[in-house]
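User: I need a structural model of RRM domain-containing protein from Cudoniella acicularis for a docking pre-check later this week. Nothing fancy, just the predicted structure tokens so I can convert them on my end. Input:
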Amino acid sequence: MRIATTITSALYLLTPLTLAAPISQINTRSGERLYIGNLAHQISASTLKELFGRFGHVVHVSSISSHGSAFVTMGTAADAEDAVRDLDGRVIDGKRIRVELTSS
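Assistant: Understood. Predicted structure tokens for RRM domain-containing protein:
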């Protein structure tokens, strides 16, 4: 009997998972993810979160690359669009930043 239980448990673990949404839509739905470019090297993720938080809920801020870029995920597409409209081309810490909507 114990062997049958183990086999049944193992088969249960092999059953495919069902997702409520496609993987491509989880956490990065189109229109909410922003590319931020030309960042000053001293800027931190917490500074970006505070800066973009003025436009709505910030879901995620990626680590800032050595090239001075990052990704920010906003709670709604409208919040993301407001951030682009207000921040793209602004000078932050001495550098004119680029803020663009990403396609994914």
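Before docking, keep this in mind: The longest strand covers residues 33-37.
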